[in-house]
Amino acid sequence: MKAVHFGAGNIGRGFIGLLLDKAGYHTTFVDVNEQVIDEINLKKSYNVILADEAQKQERVTHITGINSTKNPEAVVDAIVHADIITTAVGATILPIIAKLIGKGLKERLKENKDSINVIACENMIGGSTLLKKHVLENMTDDEQKRINNQIGFPDAAVDRIVPNQSHEELLTVSVEPYYEWVVDQEAIKGTKPDIEGITYVSDLAPFIERKLFTVNTGHAVAAYLGYSMSFDTIKEVMDSSQVCPLVRGALEETGRVIVKQYGFDEKEHANYIEKIISRFQNPYISDHITRVARGPLRKLGKNDRLIRPATLYYDLFKEKPIYLAKAIAAALNYDYHEDQEAIELQKNISANGYKSALADIAEIDEKHPLIEAVIQQVNTL
Ligand SMILES: NC(=O)c1ccc[n+]([C@@H]2O[C@H](COP(=O)([O-])OP(=O)(O)OC[C@H]3O[C@@H](n4cnc5c(N)ncnc54)[C@H](O)[C@@H]3O)[C@@H](O)[C@H]2O)c1
Ligand SMILES: O=P(O)(O)OC[C@@H](O)[C@@H](O)[C@H](O)[C@H](O)CO
């Protein structure tokens, strides 16, 4: 069995690549990072270290790499012969890789009649659906019809903390032991991929929102508030008696929304929050704040981890969230000079002011009560 996976980065190697390997796939990693691709082709294997006391290692073998900038034709060919396609490139990269995926799928439809599934493993609601939308752009009606019939784009939620890596061996990746990969089975075409570790569900919404608005909201709150107080790592933030209660406060707010919206059991959700807080405190992981805070424009988007639970909170309870507003205020102040989105964010605020910049980025009305709540918090930071 053959898999094509876009993005040989942290989650690509440390999570999706590992599970594909265990399920018996030969994985072709597609990436623009020449060094990583060359190393994959040279070493043909790598280690995944589970970040806990035991430090167990798992070896991923049966891998090949393709540099998509230099050799797009090889990517098209790999797609023609693949049994599954996955991605972990980052939400903003999906429209870019969609062109090559579209080319590969068109070629595949000419030569190969088998159905295939394309699963975007990104931190967003509707990642595969968005990828499909871009894949279908510039296709004829007939091509669109055939893609709709034969190619599945099931949305997914993926959860495993994989920090930035620095090991002697370039491909080695250290990951937390915990993982969750939930896939929408309703959108699968043909046979469901048999991969141990995937949980198929018929309604993904509760799972992706619970994950995004707990793990990723908690992470974002820790990162932006931690950055404003000059911490370096998530663990340091979580050990701080000043910031940790603010993270908990935000997770209580998102928890209220999730429980009300999806009917999760309150006690079970409280346990879920505790489990996540303990994952943030894993002493065997050093996760830098700037990785978790990366891409503040994306993270301040209307459907993302801060704004969506905050607006839902207001809609459901007619109250303004306090902790989420504080975290959004801290996110607005995120000015890390090596993050292109942080630079753009600061330019927007300098030109237009906090209120107008936030309304613009989050696509909410300037008169929305959340804006006023955030501005109040900006003044306290
Ligand atoms: N790291 C985590 O803890 C984690 C957990 C769950 C989900 N995710 C999600 O997984 C995705 C990847 O995150 P990551 O942490 O692995 O990031 P990463 O930066 O480590 O990996 C992304 C990879 O994509 C590659 N890439 C960029 N442009 C490309 C292109 N045009 N074609 C092919 N490859 C390209 C990069 O070179 C890089 O190797 C993101 O959507 C992230 O939100 C990450
Ligand atoms: O990947 P991002 O930029 O959307 O979010 C940063 C982290 O919160 C994220 O990568 C988590 O580590 C991951 O989602 C855990 O499952």
TrEMBL record:
Key words, A-Z: NAD, Oxidoreductase
**Root EC class:** oxidoreductase
* Residue ranges constituting the Mannitol dehydrogenase C-terminal domain according to the UniProt record: 203-378
Q: Which residues form the Mannitol dehydrogenase N-terminal domain?
A: 1-197
PROSITE patterns for the chain: MANNITOL_DHGENASE
Database matches in InterPro entries: 6-PGluconate_DH-like_C_sf (IPR008927), 6PGD_dom2 (IPR013328), Mannitol_1_phos_5_DH (IPR023028), Mannitol_DH (IPR000669), Mannitol_DH_C (IPR013118), Mannitol_DH_CS (IPR023027), Mannitol_DH_N (IPR013131), NAD(P)-bd_dom_sf (IPR036291)
Which segments of the protein form a coiled coil according to its record? none
- Offer one example of a GO biological process linked to this entry: mannitol catabolic process
Q: Name one GO cellular component term.
A: cytosol
Write out the GO MF terms.
Answer: mannitol-1-phosphate 5-dehydrogenase activity
Per its record, the protein catalyses:
D-mannitol 1-phosphate + NAD(+) = beta-D-fructose 6-phosphate + NADH + H(+)
Q: What is its EC number?
A: 1.1.1.17
Q: Where does NAD(+) bind?
A: 3-14
Q: Which family does it belong to?
A: Belongs to the mannitol dehydrogenase family.
Q: Which HAMAP family match?
A: Mannitol_dehydrog
Q: What is this protein called?
A: Mannitol-1-phosphate 5-dehydrogenase
Lineage of the species this protein comes from: Bacteria, Bacillati, Bacillota, Bacilli, Bacillales
